[in-house]
Amino acid sequence: MTFSAELWDAGAAKVYDEIVRHPFITGLTDGSLPHDKFRYFIVQDSHYLRSYSRALALVAGRATDEDAVSMFARHAAEAIEVERELHSSLLGSLGLTSADVDATGSGPTTTAYMSYLTAVCATGTYAEAVAAVLPCYWIYRDVGRALLERSSPDPLYAQWIATYGSPEFDAVVESVLAVTDRLGAEVGPGERDRCHRHFSTTTRYEWMFWDAAYHELDWPV
After folding, report:
1. What are phi and psi of 124, to 5 degrees?
2. Is the pLDDT reported for residue 163 higher than 90?
3. What is the CATH number of the domain that holds 172?
4. Is residue 43 part of a domain?
5. pLDDT-derived band of residue 166, with 50, 70 and 90 as boundaries?
6. What does the H/E/C string look like for the chain?
7. How many domains is the chain partitioned into structurally?
8. 185-203 confidence digits (pLDDT tens)
């Protein structure tokens, strides 16, 4: 079994099943999701992608070969471009501006997820950092694939689905999975356990991110 398959089977398979059944996801495909919930999601995703870019830059700094350094550094830059390009068009369609995103700030789930990623990528090993950032790549790719089969009657949702269900994004994810599998031969038992823990935790944060958007979760005080 590859290292990535090992991580998925132990820490993601059941959570992924819950993600694709979540009313936020099913509401995207049938068009029933209220735009207010999608607006919350796009605002929070803007904050998340800014932090994810920095996390990927940290992964690049810890990478042990030049190809991986180049790849993760490129992905860090691309995360910013996605935030600027895709979200700019979606924000305009939702009646929002970048200033509105900044004024809203990151919600509790977004802040917790960003903080966890940053901490692992800054203080963990290279393998731990890769395990922590991997679910965002992988789950968005697989969700995009699943949703692309049905797309959505809502053009906003169809636009978002097309981005993550694209062959281009699939190639990006496959390159990260290949790095993960190569690392699997190098990590010892203790580090492997930590990789499993980080992968499982950020996978759960992926579900929590969708759920926070569905409930438009705000700070309690």
Report:
1. -85, 180
2. no
3. 1.20.910.10
4. yes
5. confident
6. CCHHHHHHHHHCHHHHHHHHHCHHHHHHHHCCCCHHHHHHHHHHHHHHHHHHHHHHHHHHHHCCCHHHHHHHHHHHHHHHHHHHHHHHHHHHHCCCCHHHHHHHCCCHHHHHHHHHHHHHHHHCCHHHHHHHHHHHHHHHHHHHHHHHCCCCCCHHHHHHHHHHCCHHHHHHHHHHHHHHHHHHCCCCHHHHHHHHHHHHHHHHHHHHHHHHHHHCCCCCC
7. 1
8. 999 999 999 999 999 999 9
User: Global pTM?
Assistant: 0.94
Burial 184-218 (b: 16+ CB within 10 A, else e): beebeeebbebbeebbbbbbbbbbbbbbbbbeebe
List active site positions.
Answer: 206
**Contacts by residues 183-187 (CB-CB < 8 Å, ≥ 24 positions apart):** 183/3, 183/126, 183/127, 183/130, 184/2, 184/3, 184/4, 184/6, 185/3, 186/127, 187/3, 187/125, 187/127
Q: Would you say residue 30 lies in a domain?
A: yes
The residue segments making up the domain with residue 192 are 3-215
Asked if the structure places residue 123 within a domain, the reply is: yes
Q: Is residue 37 part of a domain?
A: yes
